[in-house]
Amino acid sequence: MTTHVGEPPPSPEPPPPDLYRDTWVRYLGYANEVGESFRAIVPVSLVWTSYGVATAYVTADAIDKGKKALATKSCEEGRTTRAAVAVVDTFIWQALASVVIPGFTINRICAASLYLMGSMTRWPLSVRKWATTAVGLSTIPFIIKPIDRSVDFLMDSSLRKLYSTEEKPSSSF
Prior knowledge:
Layout: H1 31-37, H2 44-71, H3 79-120, H4 125-157, H5 159-162
Helix pairs in contact: 1-2, 1-3, 1-4, 2-3, 3-4
């Protein structure tokens, strides 16, 4: 393809969308937060199932990032190490930022709201439970970015120092 004088060069193709970051599949990582929000009104087995869904998402994303690291054409030497680092980094980051910390956070917010509504209102228990679920669900959008940034800082300050590279691992959103 030739360009004429004064014309900007053609822009490179944008990368294809990441199934685990750029599509609806990403929301599977939030399944446990939804499960924790509903804990007061659903059987605990459904809450644990939501953790299973979120953990499956984390695992699939980590495997995907490892496969992508293996598929890179740049220098054959160290490909396996880069793939292992991609899997470990993505799995730990996602486990902390998508499952452990948000699940604990929503669990404690819901427990506190149910307790406070029980001691400060005369609402029937069923109303308090549904209100607690609404509090939990409405909290999710507000905790995502701070948790993601905190996990980035934690990983950058600890584990990522062990395998420092020129580029930041692709596990962060």
